[in-house]
């Protein structure tokens, strides 16, 4: 509550302090208030105790010198004049009597039998608390502070006095025959009560201070431990932050290296495709033309058919034609077509169409909620993984019930290729180093996507891939 009541500036100052200082700032007002309240309460209890003790002692003395003059009340209801004069004489001549400021002797019905104030004698008043206690046989004593009207009503000449009621007992029967009300100055009581209060205050203050210091020692030790742990934790956090930054930089370098490797791989594939097309394909084409020319010449001139080696001319033409076809297919697969201006749906249709023409097999393509365009890296990855997955389907499952499904969310492109082929053991296939599977996984994970392969013997194979539509590009030192 104390913290909540502070201004924002004071709260900031408070929060920046150590726990031990916060404890000092918060606990000192609380302990001080507690010390004041407990000290005041103990002081009041001490004062009441002193008042009752001294009042009781004084009552015994007062009762001892007035009781002999009141024994006639056991048989009569009126105090004799001689007894009144004897009581008044004792008040004036004895040291104890001189300390008594006022004295009244009450009958059981509230009638004032005697009073040091002549105007109060012979009057009847309601029986109050103190008088009732005395008539019941108990001593009642308290510090009385009354207004002027109450002083006049009760014959109390001073504003603050010790008011005491004491019972008067009959000598023979021991019964209460009257009650004495007297007032004495509180000087002695105040001195003794003040001394007792000072001792009580010192005791409470010492106990509170000792407890406060012990708590402070405990809190300070805990505060130092926490500060040391915070310092050590801050150091470790700093070290972890630096390590994380280094890991982030290394990760960025790995991603950049993978991206450069992918780009270099594409360039290498295009170069190989161009070299195959411009080199072996041209040579094989020229050789095939020469072989066909020779074959045509042999077909028109029967004399040229006589040498034995000419019988293999047709087989050579077929072999050369097959090699040329394979080299052209390889060159076509290695070369990346112009896909910069088309979207994911068109890329999938192109890959599936080329595959169906080349293999003369059927592929079911399903697309839904695809974006109109994507970044070039995503397009290249989509083209290559579809191309490789379909090639694997044809190679190992002969294209049995091949299905390709493409869909997209706000942030990712989902690809699923499945077939009903014989299936295989994925762990064994990866352990044997299947370059196609490794290549697809690497292309997907470089972009921050996911690659999942599921295949069982006799149930076919399913590949699920996720490619982020906007893979993060980080700049690293």
Shape: rod-shaped
Which architecture of the domain at 13-194 does the CATH hierarchy give at level 2?
2-Layer Sandwich
CA radius of gyration: 58 Å
Approximately how much beta-strand content do the residues carry?
15-25%
- The level of helicity is 55-70%
Distance between the termini: 51 Å
For the sheet with most strands, the description reads: 5 strands, antiparallel
Spatial arrangement of strands, main beta sheet:
2-1-5-4-3
Find the count of extended strands (DSSP E, 2+ residues).
10
Uncertain parts: none
| CATH C-level class of the domain at 13-194 | Alpha Beta
Helical segment tally? Answer: 13
Mean pLDDT: 76
CATH topology of the domain at 13-194: Beta-Lactamase
Topology as H/E string? HHHHEEHEHEEHHHHEHEEHHEE
How would you name the CATH homologous superfamily of the domain at 13-194?
Answer: PAS domain
- Backbone structural class: alpha+beta
In short:
The protein is α+β, with helices and mostly antiparallel strands.
């Amino acid at each position: 509550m104390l913290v909540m009541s502070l201004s924002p500036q004071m709260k900031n100052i408070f929060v920046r302090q150590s726990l031990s200082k916060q404890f000092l700032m918060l606990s000192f007002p609380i302990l001080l208030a507690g010390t004041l309240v407990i000290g005041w309460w103990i002081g009041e209890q001490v004062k009441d105790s002193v008042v009752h003790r001294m009042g009781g002692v004084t009552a015994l003395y007062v009762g001892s010198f007035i009781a002999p003059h009141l024994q006639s009340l056991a048989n009569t209801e009126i105090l004799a004049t001689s007894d009144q004069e004897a009581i008044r004489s004792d008040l004036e001549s004895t040291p104890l009597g001189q300390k008594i400021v006022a004295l009244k002797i009450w009958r059981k019905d509230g009638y004032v039998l005697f009073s040091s104030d002549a105007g109060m004698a012979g009057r009847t008043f309601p029986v109050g608390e103190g008088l009732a206690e005395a008539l019941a046989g108990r001593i009642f004593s308290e510090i009385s502070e009354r207004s002027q009207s109450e002083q006049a009503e009760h014959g109390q000449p001073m504003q603050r006095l010790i008011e005491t009621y004491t019972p008067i007992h009959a000598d023979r029967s021991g019964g209460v025959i009257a009650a004495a009300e007297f007032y004495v100055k509180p000087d002695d009581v105040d001195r003794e009560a003040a001394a007792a209060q000072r001792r009580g205050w010192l005791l409470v203050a010492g106990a509170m201070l000792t407890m406060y210091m012990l708590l402070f020692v405990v809190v300070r030790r805990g505060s130092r431990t926490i500060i040391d742990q915070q310092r050590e934790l801050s150091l470790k956090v700093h070290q972890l932050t630096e390590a994380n930054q280094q890991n982030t930089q290394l990760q960025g370098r790995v991603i950049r290296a993978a991206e450069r490797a992918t780009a270099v791989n594409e360039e290498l594939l295009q170069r190989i495709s161009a070299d195959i097309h411009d080199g072996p394909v041209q040579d094989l084409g020229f050789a095939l033309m020469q072989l066909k020319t020779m074959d045509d010449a042999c077909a028109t001139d029967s004399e040229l058919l006589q040498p034995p080696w000419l019988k293999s001319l047709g087989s050579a033409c077929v072999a050369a034609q097959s090699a040329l076809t394979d080299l052209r297919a390889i060159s076509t697969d290695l070369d990346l077509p112009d896909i910069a201006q088309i979207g994911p749906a068109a890329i999938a249709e192109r890959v599936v169409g080329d595959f169906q023409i080349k293999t003369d097999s059927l592929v079911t393509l399903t697309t839904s909620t695809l974006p109109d365009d994507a970044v070039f890296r995503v397009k290249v990855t989509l083209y290559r993984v579809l191309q490789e997955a379909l090639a694997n389907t044809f190679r190992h499952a002969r294209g049995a019930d091949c299905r390709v499904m493409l869909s997209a969310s706000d942030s990712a492109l989902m690809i699923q290729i499945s077939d009903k082929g014989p299936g295989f053991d994925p762990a064994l296939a990866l352990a044997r180093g299947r370059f196609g599977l490794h290549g697809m996984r690497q292309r997907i994970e470089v972009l921050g996507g996911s690659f999942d392969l599921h295949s069982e013997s006799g149930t076919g194979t399913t590949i699920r891939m996720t490619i982020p539509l906007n893979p993060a590009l980080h700049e690293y030192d």
